[in-house]
Amino acid sequence: MNDYRSSHLAAECPTQFEGHYIHGHGHLYWKHFERPYLERLFARLGREYPGRYLDFACGTGRILELAWPHFIETVGIDVSEAMLAEGRRRVPAARLIQVDVMTDPPDVGTFQVISLFRFILSAEDHLREGVLRWLRTVIAPGGVLVVNNHLNGWSITGLRHRLRNVMRGRPGGPPTERHMETLLRRCGFEIVEAYGFGVIPPWRDTRRFPSAPLLRLERLLGASQTLQKYAKDRIYLCRPIEAETAGGGLRPPSSSGINDLGCGSERQ
């Protein structure tokens, strides 16, 4: 295992990961946008689908902690025991499983709601597609997949990454909306709803960049559905596509994943 999966196995990973949301660039957007949105979303999904919930690549339980009160049963899956140890402390009511679904897919039944956060951007192409195809096999008919892309290729930050790649002679860049739609559809899902935040690039609360006026501006810009498409973080609600309506059946995995659309991996 010499890919994204191995990057979260070290004992210090939970502290490093959580630091991003405590004092890093992700703190303000998590506190003011992502967390409030997810709290409302999971409350709504829990009313509509009060059954089984799975958080894939659940890590330290950041998303699980918001979701578990709204479902009858909550399951988390991750390859890192170090991350799961923090997740168990955080959400003792959840059933957390340490397993690699690419090599040893577990028999866990089906789920009405599945979430997949901070995975699509960072994982290699074969992992992106392999995991999404496995999730398609465990989502219940009519269920919901909630998946995010935390570096939209058409955001200001994403364009900066794309330019940096060009200057370094590396093709592609972070996934764009079209890349996400194509990948998800190829793996048996269609996007039915989307939310975005981070029209303004992430910042730290300093005297030069005070938070209050920038947060007001972000809320103003983010109220536009059009501008949300250019936000750094995008969250998608997806439905499974029935095989008979997916253009003659689901396509087999491609050898290169998103890269065949000009979109390479970007680790964040």
Describe the structure.
This protein is an alpha/beta fold and 268 residues long. The chain contains 9 helices and 7 strands, in the order H-H-E-H-E-H-E-E-H-E-H-H-E-H-H-E. The radius of gyration is 18 Å and the shape is globular. The chain has a single domain, classed as Rossmann fold (3-Layer(aba) Sandwich). It has a 7-stranded mixed beta sheet, sandwiched between helices. It is 37% helix and 18% strand. The C terminus is likely disordered. Helix 5 links the parallel strand 4 and strand 5.
Radius of gyration: 18 Å
Question: What is the class in the CATH system?
Answer: Alpha Beta
Largest sheet: number of strands, sense, barrel closure: 7 strands, mixed
Class by alpha and beta content: alpha/beta
Instruction: Report mean pLDDT, rounded to a whole number.
Output: 85
What is the overall shape? globular
Strand order of the largest sheet: 3-2-1-4-5-7-6
What is the CATH homology-level superfamily?
A: Vaccinia Virus protein VP39
List the helices and strands and how they pair.
Blueprint (H helix, E strand, L loop, with lengths): L12 H10 L3 H23 L3 E5 L7 H4 L5 E6 L2 H10 L4 E4 L12 E6 L8 H14 E11 L6 H12 L9 H10 L2 E9 L13 H12 L2 H4 L4 E8 L28
Parallel strand pairs: 1-2, 1-4, 2-3, 4-5
Antiparallel strand pairs: 5-7, 6-7
Question: Can you give me a brief rundown of this structure?
Answer:
The chain has nine helices and seven strands, in the order ααβαβαββαβααβααβ.
Label this structure with key terms.
Rossmann fold, alpha/beta, disordered C terminus, 268 residues, seven-stranded mixed sheet, globular
